[in-house]
Amino acid sequence: MVDQHNIASAHGGLPAPGLATQLLHRDDVDHLAHPNHPIAPTLTTSTTFRAPHPDSAAAAHMRSAVAGEVDFDFQDPPTHVYSRYSQDTNLRAEKVLSSLLRGHALTYASGLNAAYAALLFYSPSVVAIRNGYHGVHASLKLYSRGRDVKVIDLDAEYPRFAPEKQRDGGLLVWVETPLNPTGEARDLSLYSERTRAAGGSLVVDSTFAPPPLTDPFAFGADMVMHSGTKYFGGHSDVLCGVLAVKDKADWDALWHDRTYLGSTLGSLEAYLLLRSLRTLTLRVQRQSETATKLAQWLHSLSLPSKSSDTSSGDTGEQQSPPPSSSSSTSPSSISGGKVIGRTWHGSLQPRQDTDLDPLAKSEGLGFDPRQQMPGGWSPTFAFRTTKPEYARMLPHLLRYFTPATSLGGVESLMEHRIVSDPGEDARLIRVSVGLEDFEDLRADIAQGLETLLKAEQEQQRQL
Ligand code: PLP
Questions:
Q1: Does pLDDT of 24 surpass 90?
Q2: Contact call for residues 65 and 52 (beta carbons, < 8 A)
Q3: Is 409 in the pocket of ligand 1 (CB under 6 A)?
Q4: For a pLDDT cut of 90, what percent of the chain falls above it?
Q5: Of 397, 408, 386, 405, nearest in space to 447 by CA
Q6: Which of 45, 69, 179, 339 makes a 20 to 30 Å CA pair with 395?
Q7: Compositional bias of type Low complexity: which residue ranges (predicted)?
Q8: Cα–Cα dist 269/98, whole Å
């Protein structure tokens, strides 16, 4: 008979597991030691747990912890008390997330909830930030209520603070990368160097590029934030946020804040999150590959075509990387910059400032993000149509893309971005690429663009 314990100990001799293996096994209790161990996690929704017998060691430990005599490690509690403090499924999800993000991770009730917790944690008096998800700016306004907080531009000169100010009235630099809605990457090494020099802290909102695409800690982040609603949840059915820090003492402090903010993730959501994390690498790599092909193809549509008439569009806007060969399959009616004015994506960086459009996004010119994003580009990106009417209608003419906000799910979405973000250019469309086949998605957009143009010609004929 095979000795199960010997097999279990042999696991210790294996090489360090890869990311996909960690996602599946990091939270696994030693299943070799438990005959009949359930493969899927057991779903526990209980908010409260039977107290240990007063004479037990567990009860004595709890009494000492409440009296402040010993630490009670809520990352690995000997017993659960109440689900706002700890609960099995959430702890398992956090174990997997910690492994994935290479830090100590906590979950929150939403991405914005996590963003707010990050602000409270650092309690800055100066925040350097520009653009990105508009909701984070709204959270920052909430945080600033009743406090004397100065918001400065990300590229402004940073005021210097003494080290003791790091979590008490100092500088917080908030970098979202890749950026919502364009999917373009910002230079993390640059911002971490500048933050360090000023004695500040760097939070990176990495929602648009989960591992294995990038690791912000490797480029100097002090804290990594994710809207887990997006790629971690991955199926448009769980609202969730994540923070990760390198230091366990910071995790403890964040855990304390979360407990008394009451922003713990619900147990059903934790279950859905854990289930989705198992397939994260597969999903994200595929979504990234498809998005890159689509962005390259859309970019090719904005370039002046060799033979076609280019007078109807603002062409010649973008000259960076070469278009993919898929451009040759596009009907000439939709190429040559007639409908697509410009496409933004990490794969189109570094770019030069050849865009003369007054609403052009001109961040990070010349930055090459290849080193920062070794696992691939963001599966979400944006493009600009030549007329606002095209951007308004296109998402509603498609079969496989659904007109909706959010991103990161297995189904592709396309959004006229101004609908969610009133500050956005009315010609901008954000694309979240799901798991459909590339050729189907490309054909869907192509037919949508052709339909737009035909409808416009029809209208003109009737005038
Ligand atoms: N950060 C980014 C970059 C986002 O795109 C979003 C949501 O779209 C958030 C934060 C907020 O996350 P949630 O909607 O989960 O609160």
A1: yes
A2: no
A3: no
A4: 79
A5: 397
A6: 179
A7: 304-316, 325-335
A8: 17
CA of residue 270 to ligand 1 center, whole Å:
18
CA gap 258, 333 in Å, rounded: 55
**Inter-residue contact 127 to 174 (CB < 8 Å):** yes
Whether the CB of 111 sits within 6 Å of ligand 1: yes
- β-partners of residue 454 are none
Query: ∠ CA(37), CA(40), CA(45), 5° rounding?
Result: 105
pTM score over 0.90? yes
Q: Which of 208, 226, 230 to mutate to test the pocket of ligand 1 (most atoms within 8 A of CB)?
A: 230
Give the CA angle between residues 252, 211, 120 to the nearest 5°: 35
Encode pLDDT of 129-185 as tens digits.
999 999 999 999 999 999 999 999 999 999 999 999 999 999 999 999 999 999 999
What domains does the chain contain, in order, with CATH numbers?
Answer: 40-106+232-277 (no CATH), 111-226 (3.40.640.10), 282-462 (3.90.1150.10)
Tokens 């459009």 correspond to 357
The residue whose CA is least distant from atom 4 of ligand 1 is 133
Structure tokens at 440: 């189907």
Structure tokens of 275?
């289930």
Atom of ligand 1 nearest to the CA of 113: 16
Tell me, in angstroms, the distance from the centre of ligand 1 to residue 227's CA: 5
Nearest-CA residue for atom 12 of ligand 1: 111
